[in-house]
């Protein structure tokens, strides 16, 4: 059996053991699994069975597993545990993970958990909670090692050793002055290779940093693009307040990419594994978009009704309606997806809308000429050249329009602080379906004289 089959078999074994109240068998089965495998099994179990299995994990392993779960699943799991277990898990989390979980919990539960924290942990958590939603301040870790620029390498190494157990990372070490203002950064490798008496000011490098109020996704993308092990986070006065490690940056980017892909496909993001998502939530994630698209489709019906007499005179035109609207929608979706991705990678900004429109207009025109030429030849062979001309000219016009609009809409969305993905495939498809048919019938009336 391959890995997927083994995983499925293990999950079924544990499910049967839990359903039969054979907790010893379930304990023995889960003891053989890695943390990642335990997470995978928990994601495939029902809510009650998940809580039962989680209680069978040793405390140290349980917190490792809990940290790997999505925040929404963490919130759901806590509801199935005893109050003392919940408090212990919550206290053991890193401050940034704790804040992410609090965002998923009801306000009353969140307040109770906060009150149960030791004063120092409560203060750190409250500070992070005070930063704006979706800012990097909500996702940074305050558990870092900072060094002063007047330290020697030997003193710096001693400071690092004292914080090995509680620091998020020691590979990237911010250097500050007496006022905690960031002045540089030094890597652990540089410390280990420098002479013990060397002052840090002599070996530190220019730091890369983000403001604590900067967008979390943009900061994470910067960390990934620069290939940093950690991105330093500072306040408005460039004082050191936290650090974003590369693993947290990748988690932010993964969540952002999942959200964009969901909205491009006309659904809301699930924010949890598919098999662990209730059917009701799956329905809610899709129904709003389907209603929107259904209402948009009424425009297509109205266009057909307006040009009903044209269809009556040349019935053949009706055969090509799916081709016309399908090609236009696909062309617009391609352009919108390409530009949305370019926005995410900072390849373009809303200020580039003129250049994007000009580029997509040329791309759409080129695609239209290519597809229209092929359609003209094939349609003329099967029907006649006049119908072929209608189809060919329509494809040229629709591809040009669809690519231009599809490329522009994500930039318009970004400029008004809306999600570019929302303006992508579903919106473009609805828009192009209606306008494409108008163009189609206008071209038919002009060419065929009807």
UniProtKB/TrEMBL annotation:
Keyword flag Glycosyltransferase? no
Answer whether the UniProt record assigns the keyword Cell membrane to this protein: yes
* Keywords assigned by UniProt, alphabetized: CBS domain, Cell membrane, Magnesium, Membrane, Metal-binding, Transmembrane, Transmembrane helix, Transport
Q: Where is the CBS domain?
A: 140-202, 203-259
GO cellular component terms, alphabetically, are: plasma membrane
Q: What molecular function does GO assign, one term? A: magnesium ion transmembrane transporter activity
Localization, per the record, is:
Cell membrane; Membrane
Q: How does it sit in the membrane?
A: Multi-pass membrane protein
Q: Which NCBIfam families match?
A: mgtE
- Chain's role: Acts as a magnesium transporter.
PANTHER family given in the database record: MAGNESIUM TRANSPORTER MGTE
What protein am I looking at? Magnesium transporter MgtE
């Amino acid at each position: 059996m391959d890995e997927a089959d083994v995983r499925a078999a293990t999950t079924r074994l544990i499910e049967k053991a839990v359903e039969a109240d054979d907790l010893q068998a379930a304990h023995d089965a889960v003891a053989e699994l890695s943390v990642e495998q335990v997470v995978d099994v928990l994601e495939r179990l029902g809510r009650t069975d998940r809580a039962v299995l989680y209680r069978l994990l040793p405390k140290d392993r349980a917190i490792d597993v809990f940290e790997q779960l999505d925040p929404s699943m963490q919130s759901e799991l806590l509801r199935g545990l005893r109050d003392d277990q919940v408090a212990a898990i919550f206290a053991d989390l890193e401050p940034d993970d704790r804040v992410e979980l609090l965002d998923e919990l009801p306000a009353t539960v969140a307040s109770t958990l906060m009150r149960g924290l030791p004063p120092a942990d409560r203060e750190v958590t409250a500070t992070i909670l005070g930063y704006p939603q979706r800012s990097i301040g909500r996702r940074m870790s305050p558990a870092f090692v900072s060094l002063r620029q007047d330290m020697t390498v030997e003193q710096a190494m001693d400071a690092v050793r004292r914080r090995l157990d509680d620091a998020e990372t020691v590979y990237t070490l911010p250097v500050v002055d007496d006022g905690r203002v960031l002045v540089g950064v030094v890597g652990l490798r540089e410390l280990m290779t420098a002479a013990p008496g060397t002052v840090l000011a002599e070996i530190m490098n220019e730091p890369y940093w983000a403001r604590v109020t900067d967008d979390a996704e943009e900061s994470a993308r910067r960390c990934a693009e620069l290939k940093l092990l950690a991105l330093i986070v500072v306040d408005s006065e460039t004082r050191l307040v936290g650090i974003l490690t590369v693993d947290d940056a990748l988690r932010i980017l993964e969540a952002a990419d999942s959200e964009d892909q969901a909205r491009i496909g006309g659904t809301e993001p699930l924010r949890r594994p598919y098999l662990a998502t209730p059917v009701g939530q799956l329905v809610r994630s899709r129904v709003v978009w389907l209603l929107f698209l259904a209402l948009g489709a009424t425009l297509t019906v109205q266009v057909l009704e307006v040009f009903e007499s044209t269809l009556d005179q040349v019935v053949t035109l009706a055969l090509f309606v799916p081709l016309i609207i399908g090609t236009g929608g696909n062309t617009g979706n391609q352009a919108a997806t390409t530009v949305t991705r370019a926005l995410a990678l900072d390849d373009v900004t809303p200020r580039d809308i003129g250049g994007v429109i000009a580029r997509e207009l040329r791309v759409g025109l080129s695609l239209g000429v290519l597809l229209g030429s092929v359609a003209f030849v094939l349609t003329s062979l099967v029907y006649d050249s006049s119908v072929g001309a209608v189809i060919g000219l329509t494809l040229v016009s629709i591809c040009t329009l669809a690519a231009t609009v599809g490329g522009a809409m994500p930039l318009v969305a970004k400029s008004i602080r809306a999600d570019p993905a929302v303006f992508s495939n579903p919106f473009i498809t609805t828009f192009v379906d209606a306008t494409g048919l108008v163009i189609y019938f206008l071209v038919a009336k002009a060419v065929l004289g009807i």
